[in-house]
Amino acid sequence: MALFRKKKKEKNENVATESLYEERKYLIWRNHNFFLREAYKTTRTNVMFALAGKEGCSVIAVTSSLHSEGKSITASNLAMTFADMGSKTLIIDCDLRKPKMSRLLEVSAPIGLTNVLVDRSLLDTALVRIKEDKTLWAMSSGKIPPNPSELLNSEGMRTLLQGLKQRFDYIVLDTPPVDVVTDAMVLAPLTDGFLFVVRGGKSDRRAVAHSLSQLEYANAKVLGTVFNGSSVGGSGYGNKKYGYRRYGYGRYGYGENVQPEDDARQAAAPNGPMQAM
Predict the structure, then answer these.
(1) What share of the chain is helix, strand, coil (3-state, %, to 5)?
(2) pLDDT tens for residues 75-109?
(3) Which fold is adopted by the domain 2-275?
(4) What is the pLDDT of residue 104?
(5) 202: exposed, middle or buried (Cβ count in 10 Å: 0-12, 13-18, 19+)
(6) How far apart are CA 117 and CA 262, in angstroms?
(7) pLDDT reading at 136 higher than 70
(8) H or E element, residue 275
(9) Number of C-alpha atoms within 13 angstroms, CB side, residue 270?
(10) Which of 34, 134, 164, 217 is the most buried (most CB within 10 A)?
C-alpha cells in the first residue's frame, strides 16, 4: 500500500512538472508569438486605463474561480508587460496553499512572503530579480503556513505592502481561487483592483458568478475579466480575433462557437471583460 501511494505521488508530481513545462511556453519573455504578446499588451493598456488617475504604486490582484484557469500565467505575463515599459514591477505569490508562481518563473528562493511576514529583515533576500536587464522582481510564497488567511489579513501584510509601494511602480499579486478559499477576498482592501481569469471550456458559470458576487461582497474593485484558452474563427488578426465586451453579471458569458485552444491567450477591455478569443 505504501509503495502504491509513493508511485501515485510520483505520477502526480510528473504530471505537474509536465504541465508547468507546457505553461512556461506561454510566458511572453520566452514566446515571441505576435498575437500572444499583443494580447497581453492590450491587457496592460486597459488595466492602466481602468486605474487612470491613480497616483503612486498600483497593486493589482489576479484571481479566478477555481484552480487551473490560468491566473498564474496571466499574473506573470501582466507583470512582464509592465516591466517591458521600464516600470519597476514586483509579482508576489500570495497563494499560500498551493503556490505555483516561483516554479512557473523558475525562481529559486527558499525565503518568501511568509518568511518576511515573520522577519522583516529578510525582505531584500526574498526579492529576486527575474532578469538583470529587466525591471521585474518576484517574491515567492515562502514556507506554507497553517493559517494562510490570517497571515494575508494581518497588520504585517498591510505594513509590508505599504513599504513595497514605496519601492515599486506596480505590484501584482497572484492570489488563490475565490471559490475555493477566502484568501483573495481578505486582500481586497489592500489592492487597487482585481483581474478575474476565466478559461474557455473549463470555467464553470455558476462558480464564476459566485466568485464575482463574493468579490462584490468584499467591496473589491473588479477591473475586468480575462478570457483565455480559446479561439474564435473569422475576422481579426490572422486566425485570432481579440474582442472586447462590457462586463455585467446578466451578460457574462463565454461567447458563441468558442473552442478551447492552448495557444490562445488574452486581450482586454477597460472595466469589462478583458477577453482573448
Answers:
(1) 40, 15, 45
(2) 999 999 999 999 999 999 999 999 999 899 998 88
(3) Rossmann fold (3.40.50)
(4) 94
(5) middle
(6) 37
(7) yes
(8) strand 274-275
(9) 8
(10) 164
